Amino acid sequence: MRKYDKFLTIGLFILEAFYFILIKQLPPKAARYPYFVLGLMVFLTLLLAINTFIIKPKNTEEEEDKFKGNLYGQFFFVIVLSAVYVVLIDIIGFFVTTAIYLFVTMIVLKSNIKWNIVVSILFPIFLYLVFVSFLKVPVPRGFLL
Asked: Residue 23: what pLDDT?
């Protein structure tokens, strides 16, 4: 797993450098929030770099077992399911599609069924309260909701 973390760390630093170049082209007032996000990304990437390149792992065998049992089929299924999710948002509606997507994805990833049900119900409700009720952001509406 550490090999992938090294590639991820280097890739994130490259992405952040590109992001910095893009932010410099913005007017100073408009660049405040992107600079904040960039600072947060750099901080978290530095933590990953320290963990990956400096701190020695205690048990590499335990680290390899974390992802044992995850199959490539699961990965590709989630990719395909994500594409279907994007298509169905306008047809069925954002909140119903999100609940279905979360439920199916968590089943495929072998999540605890109790947490699966709780998250699939509460997360769309949370999204509704934050984005529709509080922020007044329009969301795609389908024939169900």
From this structure: 93
Distance CA 114, CA 119 (A): 9
H or E stretch including 125? helix 113-127
SS3 141: strand
Q: What local confidence, expressed as pLDDT, does residue 16 receive?
A: 94
Q: State pLDDT tens for residues 44-88.
A: 999 999 988 887 766 655 555 555 666 777 888 889 999 999 999
Please name every residue paired with 141 in a beta bridge, in sequence order, or none if there are none: 93
CB atoms within 10 A of CB 89: 19
Euclidean distance between CA atoms 106 and 77, whole angstroms: 12
Q: Which is nearest to 4 in space by CA: 48, 55, 40, 46?
A: 48
* Contact status, residue 9 vs residue 45, Cβ threshold 8 Å: yes
69: its two tokens: 């049992």
Alpha-carbon distances of 90 from 61, 84, 95, 125, 134, rounded to whole Å: 45, 11, 11, 18, 22
